[in-house]
Amino acid sequence: MHISRREWMLAAACWGELLRAQTKRFSWLDSATAAEIEAIASQIIPDDDTPGAKQAGVIYFIDGALAGYDLDQRELYQRGLAETQVKRAAMFPGSSSIASLAKDQQIALLKAIEQTEFFQQVRRHTVLGFFGHPKYGGNRGLAGWKLIGVEHQMEYQPPFGYYDAEVSREGSN
After folding, report:
1. Taking the C-alpha atoms of 11, 12, 16 and 22 in order, what is their torsion angle to the nearest 10 degrees?
2. Residue 66, helix vs strand vs coil
3. Alpha carbon separation from 70 to 41, 63, 64, 73, 125 (Å, rounded)
4. What is residue 160's three-state secondary structure?
5. Does the pLDDT of residue 22 top 60, yes or no?
6. What pLDDT, on a 0 to 100 scale, did the predictor assign at position 160?
7. Separation CA 143–CA 152 (nearest Å)
8. Residue 122 reports pLDDT greater than 80
9. Which of 28, 101, 132, 138 is placed for a possible disulfide with 61 were both Cys, Cβ 3.0 to 4.6 Å?
């Protein structure tokens, strides 16, 4: 097999990113807790015809947020997940985890907790992780941006959208 110089350079340029992706570890969450939070996030933005929270790696954004700028939300996550586990056990006796529930059971559980501060925070983090810049851990493969039509560029020039274009035209009159 012959590898061209171009293919070799591309592989070399991507090697570090490939290694980081394969060895991705959590900063604050443990793997069991991450699986539970990921199951919740995956119902908030499900994988269907387009990538959802799981494929976009939202759990890594959430982990990074809880390890960094949003560490004051750790207790909310611990308390809220514990309360959600109690609710899960009451609603689905014999179940062992949120992640092990069938999709319709997960949805029923989330409907039962959707007014809680915990669910609201997980939803907020899920949306931020799905649509935020990939450098913060989520939006893997630019899944969120592709869904809403954002083209990743090094620099953006106005007008950014319809409204900005209208304002620009009105200002030049």
Report:
1. 30
2. helix
3. 17, 10, 8, 6, 10
4. coil
5. no
6. 60
7. 11
8. yes
9. 138
